[in-house]
Amino acid sequence: MSQEPAFSVRDLHVSYGGQPALKDVGMDIEPCKIIAVIGPSGCGKSTLLRCFNRMNDLIPGAKITGEVLYNGQDIYAKDVDPVTIRRSVGMVFQRPNPFPKSIRDNVAYGARINGYKGNMDELVERSLRGAALWDEVKDNLNKSALSLSGGQQQRLCIARAIAVEPDTILMDEPASALDPVATSKIEDLMQELKEKYTIIIVTHNMQQAARVSDKAAFLYTEVNETGKARWGILVEYDDTDRIFTNPRDKRTEDYISGRFG
Questions:
Q1: Which single residue of 76, 174, 225, 261 could bond 40 by disulfide (Cβ 3.0 to 4.6 Å)?
Q2: 2 band by pLDDT with thresholds 50, 70 and 90
Q3: Kind and range of the H or E element at 253?
Q4: Average pLDDT, whole number, for the chain?
Q5: Contacts (Cβ under 8 Å, ≥6 apart) of 68
Q6: DSSP collapsed to 3 states, 181-193
Q7: Model pLDDT for residues 32-71, shown as the tens digit of each residue
Q8: Are strands 198-202 and 89-92 parallel, antiparallel or unpaired?
């Protein structure tokens, strides 16, 4: 039986200050899968990622048209609170950004401001275990999060994201600032997390996309006749194995094989 999509994107257009950034994107994202968004710099990968939790709303001059359905609900409908969406769709950024607080307070922060009424110690432990960090920090929960290594900080940020119990986790190049060992831990963690969460990851690392994702979306940059305006388009979206071994579009093949990008 086919699953209902976690996200359905239809005719999505994004512009900043009247200049197009993305045009005519359409895709369905299944729940509990890892989706890699790949493509050359400037093709709108991060712009697309921010559409899934309305982070583009925070950018002056941003305009979004089309539909982004999340579990069947249009998240851009006028009566939808973007803060509510962001509780369900967490985000992990390119560089680890722990708060200058204790490890415990970093994990508890989002739950606390959202009025969590349960056992906070249990939530902190459960979230740290979910981010494969508990065994490394359980005896130092009151230490500053800034004392952790870069890889540990990024896993702490993942723990902070899952502590508010989202359905989806967005990751914008989550391992680009990490060494190979830390990167491997993040990739292993993603495989564990997809049992419970839908994960959408932007990555420039083709090997990483091939290793971790179930499906891949290839974005490409189009340029107008004058060469002064450019925007991203979705060229191809398919199973990762198909994208990397038998793509339908030559632009995808050229990018995957390193001919450009």
A1: 261
A2: low
A3: helix 250-256
A4: 93
A5: 7, 8, 9, 12, 51, 52, 74, 75, 76
A6: HHHHHHHHHHHHH
A7: 999 999 999 989 999 999 999 999 999 999 999 999 999 9
A8: unpaired
- 107: tokens are 């994990």
Q: Which residue has the tokens 């002064």?
A: 228
Task: Report the alpha-carbon distance of residue 213 to residue 102 in Å, rounded.
Answer: 33
Tokens of 206: 């083709």
pTM metric for this prediction? 0.92
Buried b (16+ CB within 10 A) or exposed e, 40-74: beebbbbbbbbbbbbbbeeeeebebebebbbeeee
Q: How far apart are CA 143 and CA 130, in angstroms?
A: 20
What is the reported pLDDT for 261? 56
36 three-state secondary structure: strand
Give the whole-angstrom CA distance, residue 16 versus residue 78: 20
CATH 3.30.420.40 fits 7-256, yes or no: no
Asked if residues 3 and 30 have their Cβ atoms less than 8 Å apart, the reply is: yes
| Selected residue with higher pLDDT from 136 and 176 | 136
Rounded Cα distance, 33 and 94, in Å: 20
Domain boundaries, the chain: 7-256
> Residue 259: is it exposed, middle or buried by C-beta count within 10 angstroms (0-12/13-18/19+)?
exposed
Cα–chain center distance at 244: 21
* Residue position matching structure tokens 């891949």: 216
Report yes or no: 230 and 205 within 8 Å, Cβ to Cβ.
no
**227: alpha, beta or left, given left = phi > 0 and alpha = psi -120 to 50?**
left
